């Protein structure tokens, strides 16, 4: 049974990312569990969980690009920019034609300066923005540079049951870490003059980890406590470029010493002759130095 590694979970709606972590702590019988990028309670899909020493890889997972499918509702503005918040304004959206919708989406593609949703986990003077909003404060967050590499319109639905005067857009998004899909929904609606918010969000990929390899919480219950899907070494091999080290090099690196450069760009994983993961390394000033050492003590 591997106790160190990653699990690609298909998070259900109605749970926080921390709820999922708490469930897996129980199943894996360890407190050393973390997640690689928060999903809102209403969102579903890929949530990468680290167990044991693999929790140290999560900082890299959090920074990876992500993909989503989402539904944007035009014609209603909410306080949270999603369906969980109170509707604060309603404007009939039927006049927004497909051409105008595509133009609004196109303007939000590429490198953009995005103002995060006020109801976000960003801290302001040590307190989460969403907590300040719920306490009645008006929160203004600074714009952040993000990259939306794909924002494809999959469908325009104008006859939404029981909700006249709205238009629903199904979209497919690939973006950099730190991009708020709720903010895209808000900004599309704002550009069209009718307001908008997110009604559905499903994360389909984090880095190279996709829904195709994900497992539900029910599936994890069935195989507990052997819940780790990708053992530590296999997870690192999937996520990073690979460098093979000699026994002497592995020993040096595991004790914090540097190696000669290999000319590999960005962080990479170094493995010992037996295939064990030694460290995540980056090169600077002509030396390869460990960012984190993962060889067992």
From TrEMBL:
Question: What are its E.C. numbers?
Answer: 5.4.99.25
Its job: Responsible for synthesis of pseudouridine from uracil-55 in the psi GC loop of transfer RNAs.
Name the chain's protein.
tRNA pseudouridine synthase B
Signal peptide bounds:
none
The catalytic activity, as recorded, is: uridine(55) in tRNA = pseudouridine(55) in tRNA
Family per similarity comment: Belongs to the pseudouridine synthase TruB family. Type 1 subfamily.
Classification lineage = Bacteria, Bacillati, Actinomycetota, Actinomycetes, Micromonosporales
Superkingdom assignment: Bacteria
Record bears the keyword tRNA processing: yes
- The record places domain tRNA pseudouridine synthase II TruB subfamily 2 C-terminal at 240-294
Q: Which Gene3D superfamilies match?
A: Pseudouridine synthase, PUA domain
Gene giving rise to this polypeptide: truB
NCBIfam families linked? TruB
